[in-house]
Amino acid sequence: MTYASFSNLPASTKPPARSIDAGRAIPAGVGRRRLAALLVLVASTEFLLVALAAYSAAVLYHLILQDTPDASKYIPESLLISTLQLLASLGLRQYSRIQTKPRHVFLWSGASSVFFVFSFFISAIFVLKVSEGYSRATVIAQAVSVLLTVVCTRAIWFSLLQPAIASGLIDARRVILIGEPSHCLNFSARAIATGIRTIRSFDLPTFRADSSVPAAIQVLPHARQLVADCRPARADDIVILISESDVPAALALASALSELPVDVHVVPVGAIDLMAVSRITQFGNMVTMRIFQCPLNPFNRAIKRAFDVAAAIAGLIVASPLFVMVALAIKLDSRGPVLFRQARHGYNNEPIRVLKFRTMTVMEDGDNFKPVTRHDPRVTRLGHLLRQSNIDELPQLYNVLVGDMSLVGPRPHATSQNEAFAELISLFSRRHNVKPGITGWAQVNGYRGDTDTLEKMQRRVEHDLYYIDNWSLLLDIKIMIMTLFSRKVYWNAY
In the beta sheet, which residues pair with residue 290? Predict the structure, then answer.
């Protein structure tokens, strides 16, 4: 690429630079040095703790078996495991992810590296024939211990470093913005919340259209000067904020900025919110912007289903005496059946019939359904107790077993409620991209019960969509534990 035509541009024509107050200012380079020192400390701490965890797990395992281990035997192996973990983390640039990645990504990357390290370690001791006297149980104990150590260490460091990054004490990313002043200010305000600091901003250079020359090499007045102005700033990223008419200029400017050792981004200013939920992905021989994706791939669905079936069977067996007692109590308390089925919307918005213990004197369904309110006269005396303790939901373990529901997921609403709120709340029906659950993220955060206002339902939907977009088996287990022990689960239960 040639820029010979830029050399004669007068200095006075260069695009003006602007400073943006992006929070607490620190001298150039200080934030980076602090970050580098802290990342070295993170890596060193993890190295030492992993070695200690691997060594302690092996020794403690033999002590539990009342065996006297050779304490020095496991020192080389523990140091090898710790070194492999350090090299894997450095090679995959995991420590630098603490700057801009969310907590779960940082922790999951650590767990993945532990799996890789022990796969390599087991293969190495087998190939080198040094596995004699190294039991499988010892390796398992070390793997579990190292995994817990890595996850806990990273969680602690993340909690300590993120506030420092957000406050500006250390730099996460230093960015230069190119675009209209109002667009730069808006983008900078959003970026500073994640610790990304804007150090300079420039106007977008004028694009000189020439159909005979490819867009990537067309003349951009002031481009050479702009590159020269950006170079001493030593930014990590340059973000070009464009409108629809600026697309040709952005391509040419990005090509000019490619000579700088920075990441160059192009952001359509009218689509920042859209891009926040999108991913660039390969689709056949094309590249597309994927806005939404199926929340669970086939492998994840299989894992979730296996967990549901196992837990539902165990739950039905354990709760069977309670089922008998509740059934007798309902019969003695009021007239009517013990169980009743109610139409709800399930996966893919398909209708399902949900089982519940009867807690009311009526069995309303479909368009006749009316939500329960506080001190509702339709609720029986026993029904109040069953609803407040969530025992009335236990028969849904059968729905889980037959595949209509999951243990954890968005709670299913009556069909009349679904149809009403789907007209009022955007993305409401996305709740049905996974199977409905007996309990869910919204419920353990206190968003259950009456939805007499649009705002209450919006908060519930927001939590349901968070669960869908961030699903993991660990999150399911966390929600189940919170269901048993969190007070918020019982708020608005009447």
Answer: 279
Backbone torsions φ then ψ of 253, nearest 5 degrees: -65, -40
Its sign, for the CA torsion 374, 380, 382, 386, is negative
Query: 284: which 2 tokens?
Result: 């056949």
375-415: pLDDT as tens digits? 778 888 888 888 878 888 899 999 999 999 999 999 888 77
Least confident window among 2-11, 204-213, 428-437: 2-11
d(CA 308, CA 402) in angstroms, rounded, equals 10
Burial of 56 (0-12, 13-18, 19+ CB in 10 A): middle
Give the residue from 237, 201, 260, 274 showing the smallest Cα distance to 18: 201
In the chain, the amino acid numbered 111 is A
Q: Which residues contact 402 (CB under 8 A, 6 or more apart)?
A: none
Dihedral angle computed from the Cα positions of residues 240, 245, 250 and 252, in that order, rounded to the nearest 10 degrees: -160
Q: Nearest CA to 42 among 93, 4, 78, 1?
A: 93
What crossing angle do the helices spanning 298-333 and 473-485 adopt, rounded to 10°?
20
- pLDDT over threshold 80, residue 303: yes
- pTM value? 0.55
Closest CA relative to residue 156, chosen from 115, 210, 106: 106
Instruction: Identify the CATH class of 4-24+171-290.
Output: alpha beta
Helix axes 415-422, 454-469, angle to 10 degrees: 90
401 vs 305: CA distance, rounded Å: 9
219 DSSP assignment = -
Strand partners, 353: 343
Q: Do 395 and 356 touch, CB atoms closer than 8 A?
A: yes
Q: Cβ atoms within 10 A of the Cβ of 150, count?
A: 24
CATH 3.40.50-classified regions of the chain: 4-24+171-290
